[in-house]
Amino acid sequence: MAAVLKKRALAEYTQVIEPRPVKKLRLVRKASSSNSTILYVGLLERQKTSNDALQVLLRISDSLQFQEDDFLDIIKKLQEHFRREKESAVRVKILSLFVDIGSEAGADVQLLLEETQQMLKEETSHKVIVQGVTTLLRLGKLLHDNVQVHIKLVLATKQYLKDTSQAVKSRCLELIGELLPVSDSSHSGLTQSMLRLIGDYTHSQDARVRAASFKTMINLHNRGLKLDSTIYSEVCSSLKDDYEIVRLAALRLICVLGNTYPENIVVLPDSEGEQLRLVDDAFAKICSSVTDLSLRVRTIACQLLGTMTQVSPKFLEQTLDKKLMSNMRMKRSAHERALEVVRSGEWSSGKKWADDAPRQKLDADSISLVTSGSCGAFVHGLEDEFLEVRSAAVDALCLLSLDNPRFAVMSLDFLVDMFNDEIEDVRIKAIDSLTKISKHIVLRDDQLETVLAALEDFSMDVREGLHKMLAACRLSTNSCLQMCVEALLDNLKKYPQDRRSLWRCFQRIGSVHPELTLPIVPTLLNIHPFFDMPEHDVEDPAYICILILVFNAAQQCSTMLQLFEENTLKHYSYLRDTMPHLVPVLKLGVNVRAQELASVETNTSQFMEQIFSQLEAAPNTTLRAELMEAAQRDLSRLATIDSAVSGAAEFTALFIGSQLLMEQVLSNRLWSNPASLATQQGNIIRTTITTLLQNCLKLQHMFMGLGSVELAAVKQFKLKALALQLVYIVTGSNSSALSLCDHFLLQVEETQKYLTDESVNAETFTSLLFKEMALLEETKPGPVARSVLKLLQTSSLAPPPHPNTSVHMLSAVINEPQGDADSAYKFTAGMVIGIPLDADIRNLRDTSIVRVKLKYPDQQTVLIIPRTSDLRRMDRDDASDSNGTEECSCFRLLTTVLVSHQVWSEAMHVDISLALDVSEAEGGLGVPSTARKVAAQSQRDPCVIDICKPVKVFVSPRPIKRGI
């Protein structure tokens, strides 16, 4: 028995079981209905309370998705629940849901409009009717070309204008203003009848309805409908309305009518047939509202005044005259009134008190203690107690002065007075306004004194605005110029940080006033006819200002050149070399050679093309590598010589250098050997790969004006660098490569899409990489690295893109703080000290990636995100030396850098520089972009790109003093 069991067991254990074929399941993913609208709509029938139904409707609006076949069922069930529901809030939500459904693809908007109208027929709730009209309005806008549907909606809404609720009337008027046909002449009768109907509601007892009717007229005008000028008198009567919203709407409509019918004649009421142009009368009406009790009305009135440029000069000039007038009425003089008394024979007997009083009766409502008409409107606006009104008045004054030189001269004194306003924004706006109208005005001595007094303002924006204003204005006399120069030099002495702004100001003043500068040149340069005076220090900022003024004036006045001494000519040569954008070329004998060199035409473009033709004609790889090294040196040198092609030369030189660096790594057989990557050679390869990645990011983010061909070349080279990094991480390190692999695959997908969209041919390596990634079954780092390794070992150098002269490179210069300061910033250890930073950044595409980089002596690095308001766009004059780029790409960074550290034994330097942090765009390469501290690492972060040389600041954290 035991033998039988043993035999059976052996048979069972020695039996060979053949594996069954694995069943393959085809998984078909059905559309999930857990979040679909049809499921939630079905739940409405089960809800017992209105609150539960409202919660379901809210979930429908949050997750709105449906199939086109379910559209009718959804609308039917919502409509049925609308009829059953007694709570108005739920019915309002259903109607608002119709708008969301109509905005989705596959929705029948006309059916929704019909169902909405049916649902509103038996409705009594005002809230529901308002929402229904709003739904009709928004759905009607979706059918913007269907005039017939719009007419039906307007006619259907007309009946709701009889509702007692002001909200219903106002919303109906809004729908008429948005959907009433205005361009179709076949429906002109309907349009005119609706206009009369809208005009009737301007007399409604509710102020909100009156304001809505005026807004509807303005909306129709903005859509192209020409309003009738006969409504002008009725609109003017609404300026006396008790409610602010009505006066505001009436003001805007009066401005529209005045600008639309400027030459129409209006007869003034209560006058002997006096006639005025409609634009003049409208201007006077708006001027009267400058003294309104409401802040908003006064502000809007001042803003509207600036848009009425067709007003007569006499009305315009009266806005700056504060004499009392009587609303443009014809008044008899005192002699005429006395003559009438004599003719009537009515003389005072003296027996009764005040028997010689005027016999005429006066209406108390017609007497006003404030000015009327356009008289003194801007005076009241500029003297208003609220800054909104003053600011709007300054803007309007500037707009009206741009095309009216006489009015600009008259408004000069008023704008200059605004330099003393208590609000900084108003002062800056007045300065900017005077700068804009500077072509019409000439500053007198008394006006210039008030202007120069504002140079002592603590605000840098005010001072720099004054510098630009003085550079744009013309001065009247030599004494004015002398006074201006002295005040500007005092400003430089008090605020040394303004020197660059002052240099540009002196440059413009000298070029505009050569005839005024000539008589005071001996005084400015301290020239004596008989004695040799002490030579000035050419590094003195004040002396540089005077030289810039004189040299720019000498460009327009050749007589001035004979007054220059030998040391002045030497200083001219020095400044011409150091500040070529501020000092012009003068016809001096000592500078003939420099002028000849400046006049020689450069052939840098041809030189760059010659370099590329030599690279393309290289017979073998070795000679081509040598030519690329020579091309890199030549292009780097060319970028420092010719600013016109510096961007293209820098881009091409960096691209070629990166290719040579890539070839150097690939030619070393140790880069893919795991045993050798742990040695010192492996550290060199790791550093080289980091440099390659950073060069790719520089090519992508530091250049603007790149075409599709250049961007395609950068993206493909970046793929190659990422592939090299992935192979290195997988082969020679123990760190995880999952995020890097995901980032690499994402870059492959984006590059392929970009090349397809831009119709750019892929390089050999890139096309093979696309094929390998498409055939790859497993997207883990190991298989991806093995497939990429084969391609890297057989890859070759790709030709660099041809130079594009429209390419410009990002650059930055730190003006403050100065790196040569010997005094240290002292603060208590652990606390914070603020260091002012002033830097110019040119050719910047994205301001959100700019960072202030601090590097402490212990190699700790801090990246600080500057505030958005700290980056200010530079004007065209300030950006004139930015290689011809647009002014919108040049910024000035004015911020305060916060420095903090623990106790140091002695004062040491902290490096302050600017950098780009692209870690958000390159999530797989760097750490997230935040204001963070980065500890000293053996490998630097490739996502942090330096864009300027660091400035060393002397810092000394002191220990905390302990009290007794």
UniProtKB/TrEMBL annotation:
The gene is LOC117640205. Keywords: Nucleus. GO terms for cellular component: integrator complex. Residues 813-959 form the Integrator complex subunit 4/Protein SIEL C-terminal Ig-like domain. Residues 606-804 form the INTS4 8 helical bundle domain. Pfam families: INTS4_8HBD, INTS4_C. The keyword Nucleus applies. This is Integrator complex subunit 4 isoform X2. GO terms for biological process: snRNA processing. It comes from Thrips palmi (Melon thrips). PANTHER family: INTEGRATOR COMPLEX SUBUNIT 4. Gene3D superfamilies: Leucine-rich Repeat Variant (1.25.10.10). It is found in: Nucleus.
